[in-house]
């Protein structure tokens, strides 16, 4: 066994490029996947029963991941007013829980609030209430409760 390993690592009669001692090699049992049966997904039919084969046909090879392969030139950049207004809001960071809490609990700049802001606040507020309740119900009373406005 060791001779086979030595021959496999070093080669038949030439000196090894990277000398490896056979003691440093550990072989594990080979875990091979079972052979796929013909007719399964991803296998070509070799017996020729039914189906069409592509041996005689010449199909153009296309890159399936290049969705712009049929476009001859790049798209032109339009001026800013040609794009919708909601598109420019996507690049701004979302409001934090602290900002939303000041807005909806204390009324700071509540006039500028949107429905999306309110839904985000409700989702984050419920999440934080669950966290606080779980900390309260812990058996270990040594943990300290952090303030509600973590990110102010």
Automatic annotation (TrEMBL):
Q: Could you tell me the superkingdom of the organism this chain comes from?
A: Eukaryota
Ranges in coiled-coil conformation: none
List localization entries.
Mitochondrion
The reply on keyword Ribonucleoprotein is yes
Q: Which GO terms describe its cellular component?
A: mitochondrial large ribosomal subunit
**Which portions of the chain have biased composition (kind: Basic and acidic residues)?**
41-61
**Which keywords fit this entry according to its UniProt record?**
Mitochondrion, Ribonucleoprotein, Ribosomal protein, Transit peptide
The reply on keyword Ribosomal protein is yes
Which family does the similarity line name?
A: Belongs to the mitochondrion-specific ribosomal protein mL54 family.
Q: What is this protein called?
A: Large ribosomal subunit protein mL54
């Amino acid at each position: 066994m060791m001779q086979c390993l030595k021959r496999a690592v070093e080669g038949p009669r030439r000196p090894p490029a990277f000398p490896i001692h056979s003691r440093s090699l550990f072989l594990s049992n080979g875990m091979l996947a079972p052979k796929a049966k013909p007719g399964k997904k991803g296998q070509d039919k070799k017996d020729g029963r039914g189906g069409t084969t592509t041996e005689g046909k010449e199909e153009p090879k296309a890159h399936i991941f290049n969705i712009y392969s049929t476009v001859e030139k790049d798209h032109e950049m339009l001026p800013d007013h040609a794009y919708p207004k909601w598109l420019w809001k996507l690049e701004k960071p979302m409001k934090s829980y602290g900002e939303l809490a000041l807005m909806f609990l204390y009324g700071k700049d509540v006039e500028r609030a949107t429905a999306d802001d309110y839904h985000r606040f409700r989702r984050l507020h419920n999440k934080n209430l669950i966290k606080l309740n779980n900390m309260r119900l812990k058996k270990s009373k040594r943990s300290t409760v952090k303030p509600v406005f973590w990110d102010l």
